[in-house]
Design a protein that fits this description.
This protein is of the alpha/beta class. The chain has 3 domains: about 120 residues, Methylthiotransferase, N-terminal domain (Rossmann fold), CATH 3.40.50.12160; about 240 residues, tm_1862 like domain (pyruvate-formate lyase- activating enzyme, Alpha-Beta Horseshoe); about 55 residues, Nucleic acid-binding proteins (OB fold (Dihydrolipoamide Acetyltransferase, E2P)). It is built from 13 helices and 19 strands. The strands form 5 sheets. It has a 6-stranded parallel beta sheet, sandwiched between helices. The protein starts with 8 loop residues before the first strand and ends with a strand. The protein binds iron/sulfur cluster (SF4).
């Protein structure tokens, strides 16, 4: 590659989960600390970071088409960095197939981007998919201005090795960030305007400090911080729902009544083949416990339909589970093989048409469940955290304690916690009236 002028503007495009959104924000802050500014809307950036997600359907192919779209009419392109989980999984391959990419950087190494940019300016391409011992978090700049609801990554990686999932390979083994670093970063987020913090991790409830204290200790410490009104956490694994964490749902009012606890299937044989290491029954017992601790808790989950070998009857067990639990929100996906994972080579891959049909059926059950949950909220009064302006004059959008989107009109400002009566429910949002 030829030397190129140092980039003055950047654009970070993040795909996928909230952890990627967080990483995207941190990369933006890192670039800003280097004096590179966000490209104005509608203008091309000198440097584009594609922060990729490996869970997307045909993830790698989409990255190549995203790269292709960055090419200018004269055949040149801006400086391109590919980051995220596809970068981690396919680093060298991306370099070989996409000559316009200057940098490939994995999720554990993106704090090294400034050095890679300096190399790219001199015409050297680089791949960094190390999982370095030094933590990237120590090398990242301080948090800047944030919105009323901010993310804080507390844990990364996964040791669970579900047979369909690439995370243990792309994000590495479970690591927990130190307690004191997290308290420090939370303070900075609050100073920068956050009123709600969502603690993030691939297995957030596997977080432990040096003395083996669990996530509830961090939640309690954050709850004691003036200025912070709400705490959430995601994504959890059923096996890491400890007694202490369940009790936090009872004892910490700032911990919002919402739990995202993926189950993936409602059938024990399928769960075993997925290596989920829990059963339908053990999952339901956890839900009973969390409901006993916090009766108004809203539940959310993830589901995969068409896992290899899943029969019609096994799929029906999943639908039954959905109907039994009554979820407030859910994410459902068709199984799609990830190269290198055990499930990708299992017998009994389910035909696409069958998966399509099952997904439709499951989503109908999930939508009914979500609509029923929202309708049952009508008449309740609750606090809404105002996150942004709505489409109409004087309209505001925010979130209820149960993570429902609520719109209302009246006197408010972004970052306010306002008392609202919920007056009307749709499948995806509710209308509120200022009290
Ligand atoms: S627990 Fe979650 S992140 Fe870990 S392997 Fe299973 S699905 Fe992937």
């Amino acid at each position: 590659m030829r030397p190129t002028p140092p980039p003055r503007t950047y654009r970070v495009k993040s795909f996928g989960c909230q952890m990627n959104v967080y990483d995207g924000e941190r990369m933006a802050e890192l670039l800003a600390a280097e004096g590179i500014t966000p490209a104005p809307d509608g203008e091309e950036a000198d440097l584009v970071v594609l922060n990729t997600c490996h869970i997307r359907e045909k993830a790698a192919e989409k990255v190549y088409s995203d790269i292709g779209r960055l090419r200018r009419e004269d055949g040149t392109a801006p400086l391109i960095a590919v980051a995220g989980c596809v970068a981690q999984a396919e680093g060298e391959e991306i370099m070989a197939r996409a000559p316009s990419v200057s940098m490939v950087v994995g999720p554990q190494a993106y704090h090294r981007l400034p050095g890679m940019i300096a190399d790219a300016v001199e015409g050297r391409r680089s791949v960094d998919t190390d999982m370095p011992a030094e933590t990237k978090f120590d090398a990242l700049p301080a948090r800047r201005k944030v919105g009323p609801s901010a993310f804080l990554t507390v844990q990364e990686g996964c040791d669970k090795f579900c047979t369909y999932c690439v995370v243990p390979y792309t994000r590495g083994a479970e690591i927990s960030r130190p307690f004191s670093d997290l308290v420090e970063e939370a303070k900075k987020l609050i100073d920068a305007g956050a009123r709600e913090i969502t603690l993030l991790g691939q297995n957030v409830n596997a977080w432990r400090d040096d003395s083996n204290r669990g996530l509830e200790k961090l939640i309690e410490a954050l709850a004691a911080m003036p200025g912070l009104a709400r705490i959430r956490y995601t994504t959890s694994h059923p096996n890491d729902m400890t007694q202490g964490l369940l009790e936090a749902h009872r004892d910490v009012p700032k911990l919002m009544p919402f739990l995202h606890l993926p189950v993936q299937s409602g059938n024990d044989r399928v769960l075993k083949a997925m290596n989920r290491s829990h059963t339908v029954d053990s999952y339901l017992r956890i839900l009973d416990q969390v409901r006993a601790a916090r009766p108004d808790i809203a539940l959310s989950g993830d589901f995969i339909v068409g896992f290899p070998g899943e029969t019609d009857a096994e799929f029906e067990d999943t639908v039954k589970l959905v109907e039994q639990v009554g979820y407030a929100q859910c994410f459902s996906f068709k199984y799609s093989p990830r190269p290198g994972t055990p499930a990708a080579t299992m017998d009994g891959q389910v035909p696409m048409a069958v998966m399509d049909e099952r997904l439709q059926r499951l989503q109908a059950a999930l939508n009914a469940s979500q609509t029923a949950f929202n309708q049952a909220s009508v008449g309740k009064r609750c606090q809404v955290l105002v996150e942004r302006r709505g489409r109409y004059d004087g309209q505001w959008l925010g979130k209820s304690p149960w993570l429902q989107s609520v719109h209302f009109t009246g006197d408010a400002a972004i970052g306010d916690l306002v008392e609202v009566e919920l007056v009307e429910a749709g499948p995806n949002s509710l209308a509120g009236r200022l009290v």
